[in-house]
Amino acid sequence: MLQRLLPVAPQQSTSFALAEETVVQSFKRQRRTDVYFSEAASAADVNGVCVADVVYGPYWFAGPDFKTKQEICKPIPRNRDRYADNFFIGCVT
């Protein structure tokens, strides 16, 4: 059994060293709409200005404040009581 534990010891000490460098990240929740269009959202540089934008349902919201809303396709609200047909973009009917 000792032979099995020895290879683990160097790996364990490395993970402790890396734990000291951990930085806690935080985020602020921002609700952009009360209408349910899809099950998830995505982030991308939609407008090409090197700032992350958010895509949710038929809209994308320009970063960094996500207040400017642009329509991608016709908004069609989805039923919250059933499984979604689309996960990221609510454009496909």
Chain-wise SSE layout:
Elements: H1 2-5, H2 8-19, E1 41-44, E2 53-56, E3 59-62, E4 68-71
Antiparallel strand pairs: 1-2, 2-3, 3-4
Quick synopsis:
It contains 2 helices and 4 strands; from the N terminus they run H-H-E-E-E-E.
What can you see in these coordinates?
By secondary structure, this protein is α+β, with helices and mostly antiparallel strands. It has a 4-stranded antiparallel sheet with strand order 1-2-3-4, with no helix packed on it. The radius of gyration is 21 Å and the shape is globular. The N and C termini lie far apart (59 Å). It contains 2 helices and 4 strands; from the N terminus they run ααββββ. The chain is 17% helix and 17% strand. A hairpin with a 2-residue loop joins strand 2 and strand 3. The chain has a domain at 32-93. The protein has helices at residues 2-5, 8-19, and strands spanning 41-44, 53-56, 59-62, 68-71.
Strand order of the biggest β-sheet: 1-2-3-4
> How widely separated are the two ends?
59 Å
| Percentage of residues in helical conformation | 10-25%
* Mean model confidence by pLDDT: 77
Order of helices and strands: HHEEEE
What fraction of residues sit in β-strands? 15-25%
Characterize the main sheet.
4 strands, antiparallel
Number of helices: 2
Number of strands: 4
Computed over alpha carbons, the radius of gyration is 21 Å
Which runs of at least 5 residues are low in confidence (pLDDT < 50)?
A: none
Overall shape: globular
SS-based class: alpha+beta
